[in-house]
Amino acid sequence: MLGYGSQTSQSERDWEKKFRDGIVPANIRENMQRLSARPHHVGSPYDKDNAEWILGKFKEWGFDAHIETFDVLFPTPKQRVVELLEPTKFTAKLQEPPLSVDPTSNQTAEQLPTYNAYSIDGDVTGPLVYVNFGNREDYEQLDRMGVSVKGAIVIARYGGGWRGVKPKVAAEHGAIGCIIYSDPRNDGYYEGDDYPGGGWRPRFGVQRGSVMDTDYPGDPLTPGVGATPDAKRLAIKDAKTITKIPVLPISYGDAQPLLAALKGEVAPDAWRGGLPITYHVGPGPAKVHLKVESNWDLKPLYDVIAMLHGTDDQHWVLRGNHHDAWVNGAEDPISGQAALLEEARMFGELHREGWTPKRTIVYCAWDGEEPGLLGSVEWVETHVDELKQRAVAYINSDSNSRGFLFTGGTQDLESFVSGVARDVQDPETKMSVFERSHLHSIANARNAEERKDVRKRHDLDVRALGDGSDYTAFQDFAGISTLNLGFGGEEDGTQYHSVYDDFYWYTHFVDTDFIYGRALAQTIGSAVMRLADADLIPLDYAPQAETIEKYEGELEKLLKDKQEEFTERNLELQEGVFRAINDPRRPAVPPPVEAVPPYMNFAPMKNALEALKKSSDRYSKDLSKWQAEGGPSESQKMESLNEDLLKVSRLFLNEKGLPERPWFKNQIYAPGAYTGYGAKPIAAVREYMDEKKWKEAEGQVPQVAQVIENVAASIDKCADDLEALAAPQQ
Amino acid sequence: MLGYGSQTSQSERDWEKKFRDGIVPANIRENMQRLSARPHHVGSPYDKDNAEWILGKFKEWGFDAHIETFDVLFPTPKQRVVELLEPTKFTAKLQEPPLSVDPTSNQTAEQLPTYNAYSIDGDVTGPLVYVNFGNREDYEQLDRMGVSVKGAIVIARYGGGWRGVKPKVAAEHGAIGCIIYSDPRNDGYYEGDDYPGGGWRPRFGVQRGSVMDTDYPGDPLTPGVGATPDAKRLAIKDAKTITKIPVLPISYGDAQPLLAALKGEVAPDAWRGGLPITYHVGPGPAKVHLKVESNWDLKPLYDVIAMLHGTDDQHWVLRGNHHDAWVNGAEDPISGQAALLEEARMFGELHREGWTPKRTIVYCAWDGEEPGLLGSVEWVETHVDELKQRAVAYINSDSNSRGFLFTGGTQDLESFVSGVARDVQDPETKMSVFERSHLHSIANARNAEERKDVRKRHDLDVRALGDGSDYTAFQDFAGISTLNLGFGGEEDGTQYHSVYDDFYWYTHFVDTDFIYGRALAQTIGSAVMRLADADLIPLDYAPQAETIEKYEGELEKLLKDKQEEFTERNLELQEGVFRAINDPRRPAVPPPVEAVPPYMNFAPMKNALEALKKSSDRYSKDLSKWQAEGGPSESQKMESLNEDLLKVSRLFLNEKGLPERPWFKNQIYAPGAYTGYGAKPIAAVREYMDEKKWKEAEGQVPQVAQVIENVAASIDKCADDLEALAAPQQ
Predict the structure, then answer these.
(1) Residue closest to B619 by CA, chosen among B677, B538, B557, B547
(2) Residues B383-422: pLDDT tens digits?
(3) How confident is the model at residue A727 (pLDDT cuts 50, 70, 90)?
(4) CATH 1.20.930.40 occupies which residues in chain B?
(5) Nearest to B192 among A278, A440, A568 (CB)
(6) B232: Cβ–Cβ under 8 A, 6 or more apart, which residues?
(7) Which of A65, A169, B266, B563 is spaced 20 to 30 A from A180 at the CA atom?
(8) What is the pLDDT of residue B730?
(9) What is the rounded distance in angstroms from the CA atom of residue A712 to the CA atom of residue A717?
(10) What's the first-to-final CA gap in chain A, in angstroms?
(11) Is the predicted pLDDT of residue B728 greater than 60, yes or no?
(12) For residue B65, what is the enclosing H or E element?
């Protein structure tokens, strides 16, 4: 057991087993039923009611709990219009109909209308253009087809990345409005029977969601600081993260008449969805009117913070899940929140039975995640100095489903979380969740080489995180080691951000008997206990060093690929390939000649990585030795080593932040400016490369190298400490 | 100019130029309008009328022409029923509605109903199962899902190979009936606007077609011999190529209610089509009644054979295209037939102006291609001995569209046809059709390696042919060098085997101004002239040797892939991967343990290939030298060399034929028993490998090697002859 001496590990095992045995699916079900009983978005009565109920529960279970409040900008819609004006008239419903079998779907008075939060107000009319997912590559394709969106309203389908990228890129290309719809190909009957017959999104189901820009998460008016009453606030017009053009989401029932009215070229094969129409790109003859107007008041956030004090109250293990939803949010976020509460209940139980964690456990039920990670970001911004001193790690969850354990985060916790996963049983197969996830990776490997890698690996694959949930501020702003855990891969549909994501739907089509809610609570609760109680904070840097080396290799490969791609393209232009394949009935514009990227100097980063691998291998070996020797400890040295370990991950930060996104301080882990959810490791270099700014990209290499060197040095320091411990003077 | 001496090439160039300049698109248009004016399937009045009109034309242009008649089994439907009995009632229309804009679509009295020829009569009722394309892999997938088709009626979508494979494999798995439908994903609105707004298949459009088994093509009652009046005929019940279960084709309009009534597991992603439903596999609850009853009379075939006698009347250059259609058949086959006739007209013109081909040119307008290559097969079977003596090559065409020249055939003609394609201008880009096709191959290469190969290659890529059109008997039964040429790749839809494949549709959505009809006539006409007039028959064996070596390499790769696949699968079974990924809501049966294939001895074939490469390289060099020296010729030696060259391709035959398909004599070129259209080079070995009969496959290697050695020796003989010519004794 990583970080445990022979004296402490047995007791830990016993307590953990008691913990896991005590988790009751029926409690998780009850938690969900209570919390998802009414719509509970930011600013709604039931959002506050839930926070207070959660607070009461934590207190009941013996936690030292309170609610922390922030005031944030959260627009809610006043007027929404999507109309087809030409060649025929059609007015979009913009409404999710109540279903008789679904008892909460008719709570229309409390439901937030279908909309995209942080859309700017606007009233626009123009020709329609279909832009596929609305990513930058899609506009390159439109260029090839000779189609411009200047002055047009674009219609993009959900998927292919963070929804906020769609209006951002559309505006950059001159569009005046943006409609986003759920295509049944990705999210509807194509995937499976639709609700309520099956679990998939029905004809008039709509995905709400934030389209806040990705410059920084959290309250748009208080970047970098907590949205406390006395915080200095930007004027709304100066908030960079509000969209440049109006946006609304619609159902595929509403989208079909708009798409069917498009002419122009037939959309490329990869762009076509599951509607029974020929997908054309336009522009027009469809002419569309789009209007959005919001109420721009500040709204209160209620973060519930609950501590179970450890014997060492100076160090914190944090665990969080948000409680706010777009509507009833049974899956998102209550499936995670309900498990979190069951963990807390059992901790209270264990505490009464005599267990006290070594380090303090901090449970967080965040408000305002949906609009833009508001609750967690404002809280971390407010407490960042204290967190940097105290936080051992942050473990997040959000929606939970069925199937395989997915692990995201920082790989200094990879060995640790793999150890935890070995001790939790998968409820369906009865193998450990570790084994099931590991074998799933073998099954899903894309080729023999990947399969070989997976088989060689003793650990789960901890994937780098972007900014999809409340871990963002911990990892990217505060440099705290992070895990994000959840089960998935056996879905029978999704009602993501719809009124139908409710208790009836979840208990009919998702984790109906809450055995994966139990597995989630067992996994995360065990991880929290094990982190809190360890003699030595159970970080192992070797997997992280290996992963960062892989990220560096990806940069080199990206450069090589681009060199080859542009060389090939230029040759083909010269040979006349594009002239040869041009069909005069659907003329294509040849792609532009591209300057072939110069070679870049990655040497500083590679040298730094050598140092990192050396120090992390050394620390890993020392750790094994320490464990093999039964974990000799001398409390003062141990304390200082733990203090040092805690700080290693802080050194990934550079206070200046990323070149064009200063809020994001972490130089290894970051979301992409144009992917959002998706991680872009080593973003300072990689994003300039994506922009074909090769010189600027190269210019970032030394500072990233410096960060890696600092981390390497601090790990060496830990190894010094550990060697001193492991071989006490005799 | 390959095969031409300096004295003859200029005159050839002049005549060819005159030929190409004389081809008139308007004539091709007129030919199409006449021939597609009424339905003209086998046995119909207009089929005979067309044959007589074609005969008259050939005679008018100075050809020595006649009609050759055969009597063949060709069933036509008397009764057809497809009904959904449960859970709701629905009766399929089985009817393509006339369209007011389309003037021939209402010739319902003469149209063949929608059906699959050579379906056995039957009247069956059973639960429905969706089987994707109905290939063997699809049934492996169904096994994994625990779904059996025993006693069921299967519904398969068109595509993924020859339609006749669908009922064959269904019957092998115990199905009692087979319905085949056109899914809009592959053949309808998903691809583009449907007819008559666009060119794609409309809701009630149906693909007719033969489902004759692939044991042998041609008349089911006279395998291996011509269906002449005195031929010995099998009883119908003994005809192996009639299906084992009844089959009918339907439209997607008729298919949708059937598919929508299926429950059971959701079909795998790759199986789902473009209908706005969730695709389930069943079985049931849909219960279907299928009935087919045909008139099993013999019907007459009218092959039109027209000769333009050369100065050397002992050797023939053959050129063919069928004239029968399923209905009006503007594209299939009249787009090719109309070009063929325009070639013949110009040959008559040149002949009047003083040109006489060296070798005799034989133009063939085949009847009965659609039911099963009947006209060409019966003719070749009747004349096989004479053909083996006389045939230099056979050039085929069938449907013609727009875009890029596609070349199939035997690669001994690869250098030759590339030379021809360099001399024909592409009407859209004004580059040569060679260059356009070559650049298209660069654009379509799947990776950098393939692109490199294409760039290195001086020639077009002549693909191995299976059995999709009238070249089959020439190549596979008679061992004649073959080309199949056509333009395509810029389609605006297809009405393949539908009433809507007519003059109105073709002239609105395909080659509207017949400039690709002209390009086809120019390409094939030039090829025919150049083959007929050459001093030395323009065969070059180096590309063929290289290609056969590639085919051999594919066998070795297939073995290696199967070894790796089964080793991996068995390992995963042992590791528990399939247990780990099993979702209890959609339980999957693990695949069976497979014996890992043993290593096979390919050495005899590799040794033979070394000999083939050596002899063909030698002949290529000799040929270059001969051409460089201006083509010295000594008529007697020349004649004997040409005689030898003519016979090389015959040596690919083995009179015993393929192990389980004795009609197919060619040991290198053959269709697959389970692919039909698609070629399976070196089928004797490869098909046993597909069956996992490794020992039997290995057992075929020596005889294939022997065939290759014989070919190599005969090429060496040609090289001897040529060296004697090129270096005449001084």
Answers:
(1) B538
(2) 999 999 999 999 999 999 999 999 999 999 999 999 999 9
(3) low
(4) 542-726
(5) A278
(6) B222, B225
(7) B266
(8) 46
(9) 9
(10) 26
(11) no
(12) strand B64-73
CB contact under 8 A, B276 and A274: yes
CATH 1.25.10.10 fits A542-726, yes or no: no
DSSP secondary-structure letter at A183? -
Rg of chain B over all Cα atoms, to the nearest angstrom: 26
Cα(A47)–Cα(A375) distance, integer angstroms: 13
Q: What is the pLDDT of residues A122-148, one digit of tens each?
A: 999 999 999 999 999 999 999 999 999
Give the distance from residue B275's alpha carbon to the nearest chain A alpha carbon, in angstroms: 6
CA dist A326 and B448 (Å) reads 48
Q: By mean pLDDT, which of A452-461, B52-61, B102-111 is the weakest?
A: A452-461
Of A192, A577, A584, the CB nearest to B266: A192
Using the predicted structure, report yes or no on whether residue A730 has a pLDDT greater than 50. no
Residue A67: exposed, middle, or buried by beta-carbon count in 10 A (0-12, 13-18, 19+)?
middle
CB contact under 8 A, B443 and A580: yes
Query: Does residue B567 belong to the interface with chain A, where contact is any CB pair within 8 Å?
Result: no
Q: What is the ipTM of this complex?
A: 0.95
Q: In whole numbers, what is the pLDDT of chain B averaged over residues?
A: 96
**Cβ-defined contact of A184 to B276 (cutoff 8 Å):** yes
Question: B626 CA to chain A: closest CA distance, Å?
Answer: 32
**Chain B within 8 Å of A442 (Cβ-Cβ)?**
yes
Q: How much of chain A, in percent, has pLDDT values that exceed 90?
A: 95
In chain B, residues with a C-beta closer than 8 Å to the C-beta of A490 are 583, 585
Judged by a CB distance cut-off of 8 A, whether residue B52 touches chain A is no
Chain B closest CA to A280's CA: distance in Å? 9
Q: What are the two backbone dihedrals, phi and then psi, of residue B307, each rounded to the nearest 5 degrees?
A: -115, 140
CATH architecture of B76-296: 3-Layer(bba) Sandwich (3.50)
Cα of B293 to nearest chain A Cα, Å: 34
Every domain range in chain A assigned CATH 3.50.30.30? 76-296
- Report which residue type is found at B497: H
Does the bond joining B87 to the residue before it have cis omega, within 30 degrees of 0? yes
The yes-or-no verdict on residue A466 having pLDDT over 90 is no
Closest among A208, A663, A333 to A472, alpha carbons compared = A663
Q: Residue B71: what pLDDT?
A: 98
Give the Cβ contact number of residue A630 at 10 Å.
12
Domain spanning A6-71+299-430+466-533, CATH class: alpha beta
Mutating which of A271, A277, A441, A581 best tests the B interface, going by the most B Cβ atoms within 10 A? A581
Q: According to the model, what pLDDT value does residue A692 have?
A: 97
> Model pTM?
0.96
> With 90 as the cut, is the pLDDT of residue A634 above it?
no
Domain with CATH 3.40.630.10 in chain A: 6-71+299-430+466-533
Query: What gap in Å lies between CA A50 and CA A38, rounded to an integer?
Result: 10
CB atoms within 10 A of CB B100: 8
Mean pLDDT in residue range A101-110: 98
Distance CA A578, CA A574 (A): 9
pLDDT in tens, B213-263: 989 999 999 999 999 999 999 999 999 999 999 999 999 999 999 999 999
The CATH 3.40.630.10 domain(s) of chain B lie at 7-71+299-429+465-533
User: Containing H/E element for A703?
Assistant: helix A694-726
SS3 at position B45 = helix
In the numeric block, the tokens 């301080």 are attached to A665
Give the number of other Cβ atoms within 10 Å of residue A599's Cβ: 11
CA angle A590, A596, A597 (to 5 degrees): 135
CB of B702 within 8 Å of any CB in chain A? Answer: no
B594, B596, B600, B606 alpha-carbon torsion, rounded to 10°: 90
Contacts of B403 in chain A (CB under 8 A): 583
